[in-house]
Amino acid sequence: MSMHDMYLEIKQSPELSGDISLFGAKNAVLVIMASLLLTRGVSRLKNVPASSDVLHMIRLLESLGASIRFDRQKHELVIDTTQVNKWCVKPEIMNKMRASILVLVTLLARFYRADIAFPGGCVIGNRPIDFHVKNFQKMGVEIESKGSYLKAHVRSFIPGELVLEYPSIGATENLLMAAVAAPGSTKIINAALEPEVMDLIAVLQKMGAQIEIQAPATIEVRGGAELKPIEHELVADRLEAGALLLAAAITGGSVHVTNARADHLAVFLLKLEEMGHLVKKGLKSKGIVLEATKSPQAVSFKTSPYPGFPTDLQAPMMALQCLARGRSVIDETVFENRLVHVRELQKMGAQISIEGAKAIITGVDELYGARVIASDIRASCALALAGLAAKGTTIMTGLSHWQRGYDNLHKKLASLGAHVHLYSSTTISPSLENEFQKLSHRY
Ligand code: UD1
């Protein structure tokens, strides 16, 4: 069955209420899986989301020779990299996911060469990889594109001082992994310091790498040590937390996200408070309760690198502004083409105009259920949220994005009282679930 036969049906829902917990971060798990190629042996990752991106990364690592098991119940991934013996990633694997660019460095560290097909993934803006490539070259990596392949090799990574003109997450992660393989001291200046990057740093430190953060945004790595396999529980997904808190807010409900980290969502939570919602943070920043106001005020915000407002919560937050009192201006500064969801929200009755990279939203009293198409992961979240509050029924297609980014988020929403259901044209359960069940049977 293909993803196209699937859709999410969302009906106007009552006030959501209850406790819910998060899986590990989607944006941390992929790079951490890739980083395991720096070691030889068996590593164990906990709280792993069963998303299609994770499945693709499993397939990618298997295609290189890794043996992998996944415990569906415990959300535990066991990866044995002892037998990894290939450095070539084929287009059919690479095309599925941009994050697969992350294996380039780890393959170079292991084999001194890597041939990888050009990355695919979400179509948000141009998403160039020039920051990665320029700095790789500084580190002694020779890289050329041949047909649909990037071919790279290195004699030995050269340590040194690297400067990013923008704190790119992917480039920071790639350079970090190169730096741990480079014998000597490497500084990454103007690095991205998102919680997911910090989780990768925690993993590399467990492996035995020496890494230090210097204010305001420099990462210093003393590389060259032999790295050992690790056991690690992934950082809780702040973007899934955002989705669940927004679902509580848009339905006027009250939800406790038990393992959410408030310190990872500071600006986002501030904006929810400015809207009039009550936000309670647990001890030591663990756990967030949102009690919704019945008359939310519109707020304006601008996306920026951490600790600013995350671009990945821009679309979901926009869904709320559509029903808030007043006018909101949302300025998307991270990606140049990340307002595609606006058109779909308009189909539901939202009043939004676009000026360059800004969306200007005038709150309306009601949204209406419609047939909408999700164009990327976070757009799928935004449309599902709008659907929870919209009169009638919303049918959302483009579910491959929903499944790339979230592990059964519809089930979590339903457990809080939302009327959300994933339908497939056949009576069997979705193929993604079957794939994970098969991996689980290896236990
Ligand atoms: C990561 C996240 C994604 C999030 C994004 C921004 C993962 C797997 N994905 O993507 O969910 O939306 O950060 O927070 O973690 N850029 C260049 N040249 C480069 C690299 C990036 O111009 O070589 C630009 C991009 O086009 C974009 C900006 O820098 O405008 C930020 O991109 P980056 O932080 O690299 O995003 P990703 O790592 O791809």
Question: Could you characterize the architecture of this molecule?
Answer:
This protein is of the alpha/beta class. The chain is built from 15 helices and 24 strands. The protein has helices spanning about 25-35, 50-65, 90-95, 105-110, 130-140, 170-180, 195-205, 240-250, 265-275, 315-320, 340-345, 375-390, 400-405, 410-415, 430-440; strands at about 5-10, 15-20, 40-45, 65-70, 75-80, 90, 115, 140-145, 150-155, 160-165, 185-190, 210-215, 220-225, 230-235, 255-260, 280, 285-290, 300, 325-330, 350-355, 360, 370-375, 395, 420-425. The chain has a four-stranded mixed beta sheet. Strand 16 (about 280) and strand 17 form a beta hairpin. Helix 1 (about 25-35) packs parallel to helix 2, helix 4 (about 105-110) packs parallel to helix 6 and helix 12 packs across helix 13 (about 400-405). The protein is globular and about 65 Å long. The two termini are about 25 Å apart. Residues about 120-125 have low confidence and may be disordered. It binds uridine-diphosphate-N-acetylglucosamine. Uridine-diphosphate-N-acetylglucosamine binds next to helix 1, helix 5 and helix 6.
Keywords summarizing the entry:
alpha/beta; binds uridine-diphosphate-N-acetylglucosamine; 24 strands; 26% strand
